[in-house]
Amino acid sequence: MARFGAWMKDRGRARRGSPHVALALLVLALGLAASGCRPQSPWGPPVPECTGTGDAAREDAAREHGQAPRAYVEEDGLPVLHLYVADSLPDDDEYQAARVFYRGRCYAARARYRGATSKVFPKRSFTLDFLGGQTFDEPLLAAGFTGRRKVVLISPFNDNSYLRARLGFTLWSRMSPGHLEVKTFSAVVYLNGRYHGLYTVADHVDRHSLSAQGMDVQGELFKAVDSDANFSWRDASGRPKASLRLGYEKKEGDPEEGDGAYASIEQLTAFVADSHAERFRAERGAWMQVEDYEDWWIFAHLAALSDSVTKNAYHFRAQGQARRWRYIPWDLDASFGQNWDTTRQAPDVMDSFTEENRLFARMLEDPAIRQPLRERLHTLIHTTLHRDVVQGLIDTYAAEVDRAARKDEAHWGEAYRHFPRWNQRTDILGFEEEVRYLHDWVDAHWALLEEELR
């Protein structure tokens, strides 16, 4: 009963202000009292407790091997993450109690669905928040993925290659050792004891992940959540903006809300939008880490990031006199030959995204910036990001996830083919064909980039 009381307290704190939830909790509490205070779990299957006693509930596949979640740690050559959440996990942004088993360790955690697009998928993405000072550790993959306070489970439901996110974040990291990274690896997820499929495990961009990369833990972090985050006085539809904060959500830093919360990102936008060419060229290095923002354009042009050239980006600024804005990429499913809804994007579409992003336009309209920028892109595609390097990464990741991807495809294939957004399409590809398409797209796109830069 004490455990249930603690759970009730947490639930009330998480969802305070909702009369429907309050009523549901009252009914549940009365039911428990009537049954002699025997806790009726909100979970579907019996929930494993992080007791270290080995009495955790078994999931379907593990039963066949006589294993508990603590022991069932690998499937098809990939690590297995067991996630237990309440069956009533809501569609809103609130966290709910969760348990995570990974490589023999149990974590008390909170979980929520994430992503505006993913929330309508049958196979959704999650954010996991580890409690009580615990940190998630995967020391063997992604060159060390340890000490994480939060992680993201990215659903590849709209990526039949299962590797675009990993490929994109890897290329971003390889562009420059000074970039702020988002590390990733692939894992099989079991949800409430049942197979749920192949996921990409990724860093959660926040003050903790940035602090681990040497950034100021007290700095400000903004996420561009829609296309109005375009460094312009006009919104994505061309209408005057009521405020330069449009398109952003503040994720970290003080003040969190109210007057002044968005002052810094508004000042950056005003600098980009208003300054004349000479001032922009001369002072941009005092405002931003120039290589970050030039590389953002290169990255977008290189990988055809059709949905990540304004929104789906993070902007971070440390405190102090030397503070300069930094860029971190996010949400890379619309890349390498497809849009966010999986529609095909031809490799000869060489968009510079200057109509969408005023910052890109400012850089490219100034010959003193544009020419070195193009020279850097030329150098990258002939060295660090040579097409053979990219093709090798595709081969490596595809081989790594091959068995897990085919199993996921067998499990989710019907739901994918009948998903309303694309169920009328005739160009849907399976895993093997999508990987081949990715290879062909990179070959063609890189060849056109070389022609463009001659």
Automatic annotation (TrEMBL):
Annotated segments matching region Disordered:
43-67
Protein keywords = Capsid protein, Virion
Biased segments, Basic and acidic residues type: 56-67
Protein name in the entry: Inner spore coat protein H
Species? Corallococcus coralloides (Myxococcus coralloides)
Q: Which gene encodes it?
A: cotH2
